[in-house]
Fold this sequence. Notes:
Blueprint: H1 3-21, E1 40-41, E2 44-45, E3 49-55, H2 62-68, H3 73-82, E4 97-103, E5 110-116, E6 121-126, E7 133-138, E8 141-151, H4 156-162, H5 168-176, E9 191-201, E10 204-218, E11 221-230, E12 233-237, E13 257-260, E14 263-267, E15 274-277, E16 280-283, E17 289-291, E18 296-304, E19 309-315, E20 320-330, E21 339-340, E22 345-349, E23 359-366, E24 369-371, H6 389-404
Antiparallel strand pairs: 1-2, 3-4, 4-5, 5-6, 6-7, 8-9, 9-10, 10-11, 11-12, 13-16, 14-15, 16-23, 17-22, 18-19, 18-21, 19-20, 20-22, 20-23, 23-24
Amino acid sequence: MPKVEIRLLVLLILVIFVSSCVREEPVIEKIKKEPVIPNMAFGVNVDSLTVVEGIVRKNEFLSEILLRYGVNYNDIDYLARKTKHVFNVRRIVAGNSYTVITTNDSLNKVLYFAYELSPYEYVLYSFQDSVVTAVKGEKQTETKSNNISGVIESSLWNSIVADGGDPNLANELSEIYAWTIDFFGLQKSDSYKVLYEEQYVDDEYIELGKVIATMFYHGGDSLYAFYFEQNGKGDYFDENGSSLQRTFLKAPLRFTRISSKFSHSRLHPVLKIRRPHHGVDYAAPTGTPVYTVGDGIVTRKGYQKRGGGNYITVKHNGTYSTTYMHLKGYAKGIKVGDHVKQGELLGYVGSSGLSSGPHLDFRFYRNGKPVDPLKVESPPSLPIDTSYRAEFDSLVRKYLVRLSNI
Length: 406
């Protein structure tokens, strides 16, 4: 055998020998344990407990529910008397949800009882230890973004419902565009696109959140609204940074005092009977000028036989209107259909109708329902502040793209 072949054979035998002597290290896989997330309910770990949910029945008291689950009379009495500062159990409402948390054994001893005041709030009663305690708590809410678009066929409300949206969104849009669009004058083929938020609790839809951005096509114009906060206050602005809202004057006249406030049951100074007084009486000398608190159209003018005397009504937009009563007379030439500007003269203080003296009965209406004029929050009308301009313009660009993609 040639020397070269012998050398190769020896080398091969050596390699085989060395390989047989080398032991492979076993591969050890490190298994990463995922953290165990406890199952929580009302802040209580219920992994080893029994949870029973229920609905308060009509005419059912809290004591009946607790007795049904074996809570003794002494604990129920203590709960009703000593935790009243947290929640008065007499105010329990039929239809609200409750949860009973018990031991997971044959005794099923009640450890906790949670009564839901709303989808967000609850009262948790603890029956552990020797003293019954009660605390109020709030569930964690989750905000989710959504969008909707549609074309008006009959009404905004019908269109939103037909597209599967929350009907309350129609009310929100009517508020946002209150000074821009008359929602009683919508035209067929008007359309809208809306970016908005929804509130969820435990993955269940609870209510409509904030409208973030919207475009309403009406009368041949695309009307935009963007929600933006500046100086700690939020408002809706168009794409140019002008506020969509308008302010109201704090009062329609210079007055000496408020002689009567908004009330659902007031003793009438003339009739001497109790009846609603859905306005504010401003005491002022006869002849004191009365001005409109905001821009609008005069929709009514005349004499109210039911006691209001000479009155005039101004419709400010599709949401707000105001009425001025007991007038001595009207501003020269003013008539129904006239457009009036904020601060424009309407008439003069008098005591026409059922009145015990000269004053103005001023009434404020929101969607046709009377509201307390002293509690109406006049919306801001300031444009975007220069210090926020860059941030606002960036937001507008972002939402214009999102709206166009709906």
